[in-house]
Automatic annotation (TrEMBL):
Protein name: Amidohydrolase
Pfam families on file: M20_dimer, Peptidase_M20
Family matches, as PANTHER family: METALLOPEPTIDASE, PUTATIVE (AFU_ORTHOLOGUE AFUA_6G09600)-RELATED (PTHR11014:SF63), PEPTIDASE M20 FAMILY MEMBER (PTHR11014)
Domain Peptidase M20 dimerisation: 187-276
Organism: Ornithinimicrobium faecis
Superkingdom, taxonomy of origin: Bacteria
């Protein structure tokens, strides 16, 4: 049978129950054993062929209809965060110090709901693949699945994903062609000076002063080195010393991260951080060690796939709830690694604007995914697959 894009209320209630179970049993990156087993059981009951253990705890579930060799993927993340949840929820985390503070439980529930709808529908010609990824939060799970032969074992022609976003109206979908979420690079700058007694600053090379100058100088990188039309962020997030109250330390450790959308900007940020740190340290007779690592790739949406995603979203949600050219945002997503290998589109689904009902920021101890948007996510995923694999 062919159904309307709007999910049946009974299915939405099932998705809510799945979400609450997953919320109560969170697991951190590459530890999603119970999560994977639970999700696999649900999908096997729906008739999907489930292969566990992809990239560690990842899952691929497939359902084939008709004779086409075309394959469409729906991706969800599975891991939770090492955060102690605020108490008081009926379905609150039973694992101390771990909670679904980013809504991955909701993403899973929406994919499971879409899978249930698609398993009951006629008119599909091809394969639906559900890519259930571990370790999104540290940005390691997508690469682990790819290194485990994901695309060779389970070919994909196109991949869709989404993330809930507090601050957007509930059930509104925002998307754009090109860069939608930024890369994340991490840096550490260790300043080596000469420590000594706080009463004799003339006898030391003070790494605190050097470090402070470096932190201030890094604030000029985006303002004076990056093209103003290319979004970029440089943030220093840590400043540590080995000193005592009455002693000037020997070392200072500065940590931080950068965000951008283009490889050329990433290279520029790294080069300027290294040059400024080395130059300032040398001017004071100190030395530095700079470590710069690439943690998350930018999430770049394929223009053609994005156009099809917009059409699916408008059909499923109504044109008034779809923004087809939203502004990019600076947080990062491990989906970006997949999007470098498969034509893909990643969307943002509004979680709500009111604190306590979808508007609480991600990664907060009192955050919760808004169950009221489950139907919207399910409808979007179903319509996207139907548009890709329609046999008519």
């Amino acid at each position: 049978m062919t159904s309307s894009p709007t999910p049946d209320p009974t299915l939405v209630a099932r998705a809510r129950a799945w979400r609450h179970h997953l919320h109560a049993h969170p697991e951190t990156a590459f530890e999603e054993h119970q999560t994977a087993a639970y999700v696999a059981a649900v999908l096997e009951d729906q008739g999907y062929a489930v292969v566990p253990g992809i990239g560690g705890t990842g899952i691929v579930a497939s359902l084939t209809r008709g004779t086409s060799d075309r394959a469409v993927g729906l991706r969800s993340d599975m891991d939770a965060l090492p955060i102690q949840e605020v108490a008081g929820r009926q379905h609150g985390s039973v694992n101390a110090g771990v909670m679904h503070a980013c809504g991955h439980d909701g993403h899973l529930a929406m994919v499971l709901g879409a899978a249930a709808v698609l398993a009951e529908q006629d008119g599909l010609d091809g394969t639906v693949r559900l890519i259930l990824q571990p370790a999104e939060e540290p940005g390691r799970g997508a690469r682990a699945m790819l290194d485990d032969g994901l695309l060779e074992r389970f070919p994909l022609d196109v991949l869709y994903g989404l993330h809930n976003l507090p601050g957007l109206p509930a059930g509104h979908l925002h998307v754009r062609a090109g860069g939608i979420m930024a890369s994340e690079d991490n840096f550490t700058i260790v300043v080596h000076g000469r420590g000594g007694h706080a009463a004799r600053p003339e006898a030391v090379v003070d790494p605190l002063v050097v470090g402070a100058e470096i932190v201030l100088a890094l604030q000029t990188v985006v303002a004076r080195n990056v093209d103003p039309v290319s979004p970029a962020v440089v943030s220093c997030t840590g400043f540590e010393t080995d000193g005592a109250r009455n002693a000037i330390p020997s070392t200072v450790r500065i940590s931080g991260d950068t965000r951008s959308f283009h490889p050329q900007v990433q290279e520029l940020l790294e080069a300027r951080i290294r040059a400024l740190a080395a130059g300032i340290a040398s001017a004071h007779g100190a030395s530095v060690e700079v470590t710069y690592t690439h943690e998350f790739a930018p999430t770049i949406n394929d223009p053609e796939v994005t156009s099809r995603a917009v059409a699916a979203a408008r059909a499923a949600l109504g044109p008034a709830r779809v923004e087809a050219n939203c502004a990019p945002i600076m947080p990062s997503e491990d989906f970006g690694v997949f999007a470098h290998h498969v034509p893909a589109c990643f969307a943002l689904l509004g979680n709500g604007t009111e604190p306590g009902h979808g508007g609480t920021p991600l990664h907060s101890a009192d955050y919760e995914f808004n169950d009221d948007i489950l139907a919207a996510g399910i409808a979007f995923f179903v319509q996207a697959v139907r548009n890709e694999l329609s046999s008519t």
